[in-house]
Amino acid sequence: MISIESIAYIQRLLATRKVDDYYMDIYTLLVPPGTVKLYTDADRAFYYLLTHTLPQGTVIASETSVLQVDASWDSKTITKIQEFGGQMSIKLPSPGAIPQIEFIRAIPRI
User: Fold this and answer.
1) 28 - beta bridge partners?
2) Which of 8, 33, 48, 98 is the most buried (most CB within 10 A)?
3) How far apart are CA 104 and CA 50, in angstroms?
4) May I ask the CATH architecture of the domain 4-108?
5) H or E stretch including 64?
6) How far is Cα 46 from Cα 43, in angstroms, rounded to an integer?
7) Three-state SS letters, 20-47
8) How do the domains of the chain map onto residue ranges?
9) pLDDT of the chain along its 110 residues, tens only?
């Protein structure tokens, strides 16, 4: 679920990067059944994780960040909104662990 607090947090993160003119939307990455590894296309967007229920052992890595979901993940709050940039590599602990992963995508306008 997207809250006003989440959007404000993302806007503050973008401001720290001096990104003030951007297009924002929801990016849903569907996970095909039986898949444990996914790769996205490389682009100039920033992705902010919205899916807060991730199985332990999930790893999301990009050109700018790495997230490894461990036992402490469930206790995190707004900090679950992790930022990723460029191409993402996603590794799930088992096939069918999650059907989709949602992000807010911010694409800077040039």
Assistant:
1) 102
2) 48
3) 7
4) Sandwich (2.60)
5) none
6) 9
7) CCEEEEEEEEECCCCCCEEECCCCCCEE
8) 4-108
9) 577 888 888 999 999 989 999 999 999 999 999 999 999 988 889 999 988 888 999 999 999 899 998 888 777 766 678 899 989 999 999 998 999 999 999 999 97
